[in-house]
Amino acid sequence: MRRLVSMWGLCWALTSVGARAEEPAAVVPPEVITLPQALELLSKDSPWMAAEKARVDVARTERIAAGILPNPSFNYGGQRLLHGANTGSSMSHQFTVEQPLLLFGQRGVRRELAERSVAAEKARVTASLAERELSVREAFASLLSSQEALRLLEETSVDLGRVEKVVKGRAAAGDSSRYDVERIEVEGRTLEVEVLNAKASVDDAAGRLAALLGRPGWSPRAAGTLGATGALPELGRLWEASVQHRPSLVAARQRQSVARGGLAVAKRERMPVPSLEAGAVVTRREDSTMGYLGLSLPMPLFDRNQGAIARASAEVDAETRTLDAEVAEARAELSRAHAVLAGRHRALATLERDVVERLPTLRRMAEDAYREGRGSILELLDAFRSLKDLRLQHLEQREAVQQAEAAVLFASGLETLTQAP
């Protein structure tokens, strides 16, 4: 018995190893990723997209139901003489087969409605994908900004360490007090805390991007530059693109098309469905067989599918009003996003022209003033903090521009601003 159990365990182990060997290897995402790669990973290899495609497959099953013919029915009836004179056969059996006939194009409108439903489901998935792409763009910009902020703070820490050596050298030579040394050491430790927080922010931003792409345990690093990726087209041109390409408007038009298809089906369903009957009547004792052929036709005197037609008409009206509301909301959202992006552009240009270009000069002046004894340690540290804050502000402004551009792309339904007609 033990030997049998051991052999069975060995076979199970070998089967398990073989099964694992046949499993396809999971796609390992890159450690460094660009925005186009992240968007491609979302649309082609994310668990969320696989679930959405499965919903489209569910909608496709409507095509099968739309093309199926109604089932025939088999009927049996028998007669037997129980009392009285036999005027014919004392026993007879009747067998009939009944087949409903769709003579008024019901299958055609049902198939058309099924095709419209599939197209509407695809449009819904595309609209949902656009929303998630916006989240990916925002998360990617946040990751880029966090990485850049970490790099900036590390550079500032290196610069402060260099100045700290100068201060300690002056203190050793008797040109500055011990307070200067203590003050700059405290400033250095404070900056180290900021660096640690910046590293945590990078990990947090990377985790958010990985979560959007459905990749647990992945800590990506973003490759790219912050800021606008293209010139801002005119609002009118963007609106022309939005009417044609914005996924939410396309989905609303597809829903309206489905509602109209439902109305066409409801109107066609009011037509009567005739049934053709054929069979045989078999009598006993006299041994006779008679053929039977019949046709039944419902009489639409009371129920002419008024309820379904009224409901379908109301759905068409509701979807039309919904489309009008979607168009108005989309235009307002695009106008807002366009105005925000234009304002972010102007603010970034002003900041770079009037502030960022002066930062190297200001840092050099602060260090020279301290070396020459014309400035105190407090003035030097204040200058360092101001320069660091201004560089971080410049970084935040570049991130704001990229976030605003992502909102414009979402509102216009474009992938890049250069696609505007």
From TrEMBL:
InterPro entries: MdtP/NodT-like (IPR010131), OMP_efflux (IPR003423)
Pfam families registered for this protein in UniProt: OEP (PF02321)
Source domain of life: Bacteria
Keyword Nucleus: no
Keywords for this protein: Signal
Secretion signal span: 1-21
Signal as UniProt keyword: yes
PANTHER family: BLR4935 PROTEIN, OUTER MEMBRANE CATION EFFLUX PROTEIN
Protein's name according to its UniProt entry: Outer membrane protein, cobalt-zinc-cadmium efflux system
Source organism (scientific name): Myxococcus fulvus
Lineage, top ranks: Bacteria, Pseudomonadati, Myxococcota, Myxococcia, Myxococcales
